[in-house]
Amino acid sequence: MASDTSKHVVEMRNIVKRFGNFTAIHNANITIGRGEIHALVGENGAGKSTLMNVLYGLLPRTEGDVLLRGKSVHFSTPNDAIAQGIGMVHQHFKLAPSFTVAENIVLGAEPTLAMGRLNMRRAETETGELSKRFGLDLDPRAMVGSLSVGLRQRVEILKTLYRKAEVLVFDEPTAVLTPQETRELFATMRQLAQSGHSIIFITHKLREVLAVSDRISVMKQGEIVATIDNKDVTAQEIASLMVGRSVLLRVAKDEAKPGGRTMLNIRNLTALGERGENAVHKLSLSVRSGEIVGLAGVQGNGQDELVECIAGLRQPAGGKIEICDKPLGATPADNRALGLAYVPADRGGVGLSLQSSIWENMTVGHLPKFKRGQFLSIGDARARADELIKRYDVRGATLDKAAGSLSGGNQQKVQIARELSREDGSLIIAEQPSQGVDIGAIESIHRILVEMRDAGKAVFVISADLDEIFSISDRILVIYRGQIVADLKASDATQEEVGRYMGGLETPIVDTGASVKEPARVC
Amino acid sequence: MSVETLSAPTTRPYLTSLLSAVVNPIMALAIAGILGALLVMALGENPFEVYWLLISGSLAGIPNILVTLQMMTPLLFTGLAVAISFRAGLANIGAEGQMLVGALCAGIVGFAVDLPALLHVPLCIAAAFAGGMAWAAVPAFLRVKFGVNELVVCLMMNPIALLLTGYFATHVLKAPGPTNKLPDVLPSAKLSTFSFYSQVNTGLILALVLCVVLAIINARTVRGFEWKIIGLSPKFAYYGGIDVPKRALNVFLLSGGVAGLAGAEQVMGQFGAYYDNFSPGYGFDGIAVAMLAQFHPIGVIFSAFLFGALNSGSGVLQMMTGLTKHLVQVLQFIVVLVLAAKISWDWLTHFKKPSEITMRPSRSSTTSET
Amino acid sequence: MSRFNLRAGLTIASLLMLSTLSIAQEGPRVAMVTSESGLGDRSFNDMMVEGMERAEADFNAEYVVIQPRAVSEFQSTLARAAGQGFDIIIGSSFDMIEPMRAVAEAFPDQKFGLVDVSDEPVADNVVSTVTKDWEGSFLVGWIAAKTTKTGTIGFVGGADIPIIHRFFVGYYYGAKMANPEVNVIETYTGSFTDPAGGKEFTLANVNQGADINFAVAGATSAGVIDGAVESGTFAIGVDSNQNYMAPGSVLTSMVKRVDTQAYDMIASVANDSFIGGNVLYYGLAEDGVGAAMDEHNAGLIDEEILAEVEELKGKLLSGEIVVPNYFDLTPGQKEMGTPPMATPPSVANAK
To answer: Which InterPro entries does the record associate with it (chain C) (predicted)?
Structure first.
């Protein structure tokens, strides 16, 4: 894809952003050409979002210039930026679910009739035309709440295009998408670029960077350390630039030596989803001590419900679950007592209390250990938390800092430290362990999980990221429509094969009945 | 080395939480003070004179101080009750109703049971605690078992309590005479007062002790730790093995019981009988007191003292100027408004960082386009 | 020691207070302590302020209004006011009797006034007033009996207690004097704070033929007035002028002139004629009671009846008529008042 980089649409010169004494951005320089897809990569906390928030008017810059089409600009609010043709597609959509697609798109810039009445018909035709022009197929009258995540993202994109954005910033757009949706998004991005739009693509997934971008800027600790043409670089090189050292993308580990004991045994489990459908249907699986089992599957095929059942956060509708040969308890407390250690995907909601301090987050789940009569031995709890911070290398952590002030990767380390430091934990469930985590941290998290395996524990990893599944699993299970459709030895399996199972194309023909919900279909 | 890490951490969080519980309210008070001064000027009075009267009228001389303590006492109980529940994420705004029912129970046991003081006083206090708890049980149970919003239930329980206690005081157990009240409690159920100038009584000591005990429970015990985690993130607490429904129910009942004690102090110490509709809104003032204290039990002592002082000073202010009691009420409301604004500001600035918070992908995203 | 502290505190406090006073006043300094319902009650508290305003105009009195928020604050409020050098402290509430006695005894040099609640002397330095509400009730009873079309009138009391019986006896005496044949229904709701009950009782009385009901029931009276509006009959208000509450349906109100009582207390201080330790009665002669006439009940009572009322007042003032006070009656007594008439059945049949 040829791009005309000689003519810069956006130029950020010597940008410095300080928060008090802390310098988040040091002298960043970046140029975006017309029709260019420019990837901005870096670990979490490297300053990517901060830099883009400066561009978008969400944060005032401390020093430096922002040039738009060669002219110096100063945005004090996002509205200024939008008026000048800059649009942002947020990772967490800012949409009203009870409004239609058209209503969401025009919200705040509504076409009106006389007397300020909303011209809904015009809103719908304009929305329809816009979506056709960019190949973003959408029904303007559909309720946003009923749309899939991928479609909602399209609404976000159309929203910026409706406001005549020429520069679009995508903030980790693929984090919430299925592989199929990701491919479609990339096609859209290319089409937008061809029609003259400039795209800034924030991510830390290297494969995606190489798949779609023209140029790549790498950020590290608030600086842009390199801007490179896509064709001149490999994933390994980008990764090295990001973390400053060569990263092993596949964890070095020995052959698994599974023990005889089944730590997790699930038989004919059925669980209902949010709408009362059979999200998990007569599912059976087992995980033995000394092995890492990866569960692959397209989001929405029952993984969430399955994990919640094991964790005691959801009541199964049928079947049985045994943890370390004992039937599942009634509450999470009971399951912890049975030896379950669970690292949930929802760090902010379930796995951590973001407003609480780090020592408190590390102490929950270990209260019996620090109980002295009715009193809590705060000294011992803090001493242990301090030790865990060091042992698990939680960066930027102090005991009294709020967990929410840490970067995603370090939040994940706090969870993992708390869960895996349990002496009595013999079954480890890690759900999306590397979601939103930077590469350096992914590596150390994977290493910890392998150590746990080698110590004879059973490890069950649920991940939407096939790279991750292949990187650490000894055995790979594939879930589709609430059932396990494949059980493969990791060393023999290929990504293509697993992908086919995920898509349901190699489903062993088992008719599971009428109540099975509509699956995610992949072409 | 290890000694350092052990000793330093134990004191610091306690101090910092106590500090933040004091510093922020001072800012709120300063802002309220300035707004109040503007208001006083708009009324054509000299704000310095008014503030001086408020301060001297609440603090200059033993009588004024004693009146301050009298007016502070019910707010200690209700403020503490609200603080306990809010810290655990339960919005018990029904302290008014719980106090009324507690007061009625103390009033009935106080006149109907004849016992030596050593037994009578504790029995009345227990009755008030039980009454407040029983009244809190309704919103607590509905909240914990069925997820019914406790704000709404509490708001409805308050007028029901007023009407129910009113029914007892005007019909069922009405004392002879023109006033709607129960018969006077027996001398054996009276809390001792100290001075002719004020109805402040031994109930104040009970309230202060309770505040200290709750502060210790919050800061030092497993329960206190669990309440705090439940308050900040109930899902996390449940996941972490805390029995959230049971703890929440217990905290709500405890909060109601403490609110009931406010009623005991009023009946046994200040009024000497259950009077119909006796409260000028101590339960609601308790919400403001707890907010100002940032739900810290020791902070409640300071903020209840402040509110008590404002009310006490208000009496002198009315004696010395043409200003009405409403001025002081408006000043109190301004404090609450500033605090509310501060809390919403914190909320906005704390949570408006979408990139910092990881969310699980939406679960309803099961259907995908072709 | 505590005594010393009290003194010291008071001295400091009064010095502070004095410093805030601008110019020396010639007139008396008055503190009015309201009942817990405070100003804006459109009843005793507001009426007493009217008396204060008149005293301000006539004697250059300077007054402040102190509003305790609860009964429990009465004693401390009175005690602190007693230290501030007021010439008189005036209050009005049944629940203020004991606090005022305690404070008056502790401050023997401070003058106090207690309006319309205690018919017994409170303390040597307290002047207490009692409204001869039986005389006012007599007047409205007389008007009701003259106005009724059905020959039956009603009485809705808040509670079956002596102080309310006093209203009833006056009302009954007046009604029977106007028309010996008139039927008077005597009812008590049992509550002073139950408007719904007041309405029920009123409608029950209306069913028995009463087309005028006298409400002596505090907040319950509002229900009596509602009942009158709903049934198209008349109510008679009590204590303060309640004619405005339902213009056209409130025949009149038996007004206790607590403003006059407060005014007279201030006057006695201004004229150096204050005598404590006694009870002053306020009847028609003292302008202490009346039947309220204003734009809200204009035309409801015949001109002739109004003219006869003036005549009746003359007889009361001359002593030709003496309205009986329930407290002077003994249970089972058969006749009462001057001229003597039969006691109501509730008295005649009482044991």
So the answer is: BMP_lipoprotein, Peripla_BP_I, PnrA-like
